[in-house]
Structures
1.
Amino acid sequence: MGNIPISAGLSIDDRLLNIRFVHASGPGGQNVNKVSTAVELRFDTQAWAEMPAGMRSRLATLAGQRMTQDGVIVIFAQSFRSQARNREDAIARLVALLAEAAVAPRKRRATRPTYGSQQRRLEGKTHRAGIKRLRGRPPEG
């Protein structure tokens, strides 16, 4: 078949996808009992040689329960009544997951508050303290 694009310069071979059709639960009448329309998609991350460095740990975090101990991502799609649409949905969800994991988070650079922002904060605290002070009983005398 071919490659499935994930992001710029990154794609997976569709031969790495293991797709199985199973009976779905939910609406569909008698059709749901006769036809295997739900899709179980399995993608072995260990077999994907072109996976960028650092992506495997981000993928494991994002996938959560959908990734097995062996590094296989399992996606179950049963939203639609046809095999073709469920298959497309499962592949789209896998692509979205991989695309999100492919983006490395930007490093946070520590910054210090500016002198002006510190002064504004302290003025706000003083103003608030004055308002609260006025809520008490008036001094006797």
Note: The helical segments are 31-34, 55-63, 83-102, 115-134.
2.
Amino acid sequence: MNFTDLSQYINRLDLIKDTADQIIKDFDMFGMEIKFSGNAFNAYEELFDQMEPHIKKLIDSNQQKFLGILYRIDLSDEQIKKAVHGNSTEPFSMIVTDLIIKRELQKVVIRNHYKKL
């Protein structure tokens, strides 16, 4: 499953909540607080607006921690390079934040799929 296949899942409240929970858990491991109101209609924006400043700060000041969170989330260099190459107008921190949200949703969808088997 690639990121483009995720569009069918972005309106499912259960998956959005699980994705937010996963993001909160992963960021908390690195001492960064993320909160989610539970509102599925603006979940992406809500999470993005909280995550992006953390990612920008890590990129600018703590490469080791930045790489650690990418490793924890399982976001590869190849995925990042592909996204940056396809979108050279957005700041790097915004591209990475978008990829993190999509990767976390992808993990939740895959996990839920295999729970049903």
Note: The first helix runs from residue 13 to 28.
3.
Amino acid sequence: MELVVPDLGEVEEVTLVRWLKGEGEEVEAGEAVAEVEADKAVFVIEAPLSGTLRNRRKEGARVRPGETIAVIQPG
């Protein structure tokens, strides 16, 4: 399943500030996995399901809501 930046209202673009989980780490549904920043506000992105975190975008990347920032492989 793709991990996407959620709709944050009127925000058009965010910066992927920090990963809270590493590539290949197991994550639990609802667990905070990344932080994004928009207009000096930081938002936490949670895993939608449990699995292994893969294909993470690099920290500092500029992304839009709805864009994929990683993949979570169920397992």
Note: The mean pLDDT is 96.
4.
Amino acid sequence: MATEAFEEIVEDFEFIEDWEDRYRYVIEQGKDMTPLDDALKVPATKVEGCASQVWLHATIEDGVFSFDGDSDAMIVRGLIALLRKLYNGLSLADVVAVDARAEMARLGLNEHLSSQRSNGLRAMIERIRETAAAAL
């Protein structure tokens, strides 16, 4: 269960065979993201468990989930951009139901992220799920 925007990412990854090019693609996704307002980079939005600094700020309007985020690491900004494409625009129930690890595995990221980055990705996914579950 992925959004159309995430399916486009999956399709793009199918055409990019070299992992260096895939990393560049992920980083470009992060660069294209609007930076999170500094006023939102507060302890309440900071995600613990990441090697780099990460902030996620969720908004829920009419039961529809979306979030913005930022990081001081370019690859992590890219991962945030991918997660935004996976989750933004879904209902709260769908956010909780998404198997994000399986969706991200479709990109082959599990084998190519360091253990620290993988832990950070899990922490971001958990924060997103917890936020949506709490709002249900």
Note: The chain has a mean pLDDT of 94.
